[in-house]
Amino acid sequence: MPTAIAVTGADLALPPQDERTLPAAVLADLDRQPLDEALRAVQLLLEQHGHLVVVYSRAAPPVVEQRLHTIRALLESDRIALFRPELPPLGVAVLARQLRQLASCDLGPGVLASAGRLLTHYIHAGALLGSVARLDRVPVVGLKSHTRSWVPGSQFAVLAHPQAELVKAAPEAVLPGPEFGTWMLVGRGQLQSDWVTGTLAPAWKVQGLRETQAPAESAEWWGTPKLIEFCAYLPDLSVLYQLVASVRQSVCHWCGIDVIGDRCVFCSATPPPAAELTARPVRALTTG
Predict the structure, then answer these.
(1) CB–CB of 72/82 below 8 Å?
(2) CATH tag, 124-233
(3) What are the sequence ranges of the domains in the chain?
């Protein structure tokens, strides 16, 4: 069975991108669910899939992260990887779906789980906000921006990843976008505007655009429910697979699993200093 990709809320389980996208396992209400029920749910996933990768947002309540670490410790399992990327909630949902796409390929669980860190670099995520007065997760937002945000009717376009950027939303406003072909997912919150779809998407030359509701954690992450979140991403499974397959794999010296990167995502062991992440020539694409 393919590795299970789990998220911590149903709104982070996006609809399939293609016919090969596997369903997400939803570990909902971890902060309210009895521990024994959560343990049984995770144990069942491990029995069915062998390995589990849980992708969750940094805006998740601290008790959710505590519960995940407790479950992994109680199960004494090195087959559970916890991944909390530096992305806003909509970007987390997109990344989880990309891993669900890759889960259908011939990638080992360690390589698949490690791929999350790699694919994060190819995601452009931000939001259009009605106020930045409570936004403290993007370093470019300073006192001057906070003052301007108190003016009625002001809207701000904020890019959180891969680099921090803020502009006042206007027809001529520009945010640095991807230099490769992407699709865009737009998550609607309580803000009313067509700036993202009418100005940003054409400026970024997106090849496709879809809309959804902003995840519940977006208001916490951005400091306001008056937002429209956006995320540009690579949609094609063949491209995602090529990116991952082009990176040299190594064997974790502790648990013996194949990984990419500088740390095993399952046991957290790091390789000897001489083992570095390097690229190798891209091989022929095989997504079977």
Answers:
(1) yes
(2) 3.30.1180.10
(3) 4-105, 124-233
